[in-house]
Design goal:
It holds the Pfam family AAA_23. This is Rad50/SbcC-type AAA domain-containing protein. Belongs to the SMC family. SMC6 subfamily. One of its GO terms (cellular component) is site of double-strand break. The protein has three domains: about 130 residues, P-loop containing nucleotide triphosphate hydrolases (Rossmann fold), CATH 3.40.50.300; about 100 residues; about 100 residues. It has eight helices and six strands. Strand 5 and strand 6 form a beta hairpin.
């Protein structure tokens, strides 16, 4: 029977390194354990007949079907082409061989005849065969995958089942095609209406010209009658009738001279339409230019976000330094208070000690004073760190505002 599959060969496709299947003329069953590659055979048929990788719900790109560790994958499908429904039997013979080869960078499809001679390699030729045999791999009634079966069996209401039926019977495709045709008709109707509006003045002038031409034809009939009257009335009215004929001839000539002007106006309207098309092209280029500028702005935004991230990192480091300085300052303040208490004790003792001990106390006071100066310098440094942290916070806020 024409359109049935007789042989499938897979090489480095998904889990199959090399697979060769001969199919019977009627119903065929393929059995095996889970993970043995049954669904891979169905997926290979979908890919061979032009299905996109995402629609198989097995991979994101076509190269993902290549078996791990291999550089290519190959699918070969033999289609019977015998009987009254055969497709171009004089070209392909009794068998059509479809070969699909997939690499990391590309994929190709080749159609061969029954003797293995290459016939075509264009996608349109494959689509022609698919349409002839009515092979729609995306139709769940033609190929029902596990996911489609699960979706149909788990649909809980009539609406979901109708969606499945709508897609399976190609009504959805017909509906989308009708909507596309409706949009195209609406666009064409709007263009026709605009053209009619621009042509209406010219059409009115043409109608006037037609009316005048009809009148001129009537005048020619009158002129013929006048010739008959001239013959009957001899030469009595010859001069007057000739004068009228000449006037009408002049008028007719003027009307004929106006015809090129009307044609010129029609041509000008055609030029206006061409100018509008050119303006549309320029606007499309402007849109592309705006898209490029938007890309540049996004890059600037990313750069500013990176700068903000660096400032935040520096802020965290300064906050840690500030915390350490604060703890050090608290310790120094405690030390300062102890030293001040010691200084007061020394001053009290100074009044009680003798003159000989006064010099030693003076030296101790100087040492304490130096410690106080050192603590004071550390306090000043901690204050500078606080000021710098406040400045960084201010800069970060300004950057975020920008």
């Amino acid at each position: 029977m024409a359109g049935t599959i007789s042989r499938i060969r897979l090489e480095n496709f998904m889990c199959h390194s090399s697979l060769h299947i001969e199919l019977g003329e009627h119903v065929n069953f393929i059995t095996g354990q889970n993970g043995s590659g049954k669904s891979a055979i169905l997926t290979a048929l979908c890919i061979a007949f032009g299905c996109r990788a995402k629609n198989t719900q097995r991979a994101a790109t076509i190269k993902d079907f290549i078996k791990t560790g291999c550089s290519y994958a190959a699918i070969s499908v033999d289609i019977n082409n015998q009987g009254e429904d055969s497709f171009k039997p004089d070209v392909y013979g009794n068998l059509i061989k479809l070969e699909r080869r997939i690499t990391e960078s590309s994929s190709s499809t080749i159609l061969k005849d029954q003797h293995g001679r290459k016939v075509a390699n264009r996608k349109d030729d494959l689509n022609e065969i698919i349409e002839h045999f009515n092979i729609d791999v995306e139709n769940p009634c033609v190929i029902m995958s596990q996911d489609k079966s699960r979706e149909f069996l788990h649909s809980g209401n009539d609406k979901d089942k109708f969606k499945f039926f709508f897609k399976a019977t190609l009504l959805q495709q017909v509906n989308e095609l009708l909507e596309t045709i409706r949009d195209q008709l609406n666009n064409a109707d709007s263009v026709v209406q605009e053209l009619e509006k621009s042509i209406k003045p010219v059409m009115r002038e043409l109608d006037e010209l037609r009316e005048k031409i009809k009148n001129m034809e009537h005048i020619e009939e009158i002129a013929h009658d006048i010739d008959n009257l001239k013959k009957k009335l001899a030469w009595s009215w010859v001069y007057e009738v000739d004068q009228q004929i000449e006037e009408q001839t002049v008028r007719l000539q003027k009307l004929k001279e106006r015809i090129p002007a009307c044609q010129e106006r029609i041509d000008r309207n055609t030029v206006v339409i061409d100018d509008l098309k050119k303006e549309l092209t320029e606007k499309e280029e402007l849109v592309r230019s705006l898209g490029d500028k938007t890309h540049e702005v996004n890059n600037m935004k990313k750069s500013m976000e990176d700068n903000i991230a660096e400032v935040v990192k520096l802020k965290i480091e300064l906050e840690a330094e500030h915390e350490r300085g604060t703890r050090t300052l608290e310790k120094m303040n405690g030390r300062l208070k102890q030293m001040q208490a010691q200084l007061r004790d020394f001053q009290m003792q100074h009044m009680q000690f003798t003159q000989a001990e006064a010099s030693q106390i003076e030296e101790d006071m100087q040492n304490i004073q130096r410690d106080i100066d050192y603590l004071d310098s550390n306090v000043t440094r901690s204050f500078s760190l606080i000021v710098l942290l406040t400045l960084l916070n201010y800069i970060q806020v300004n950057i975020l505002v920008v």
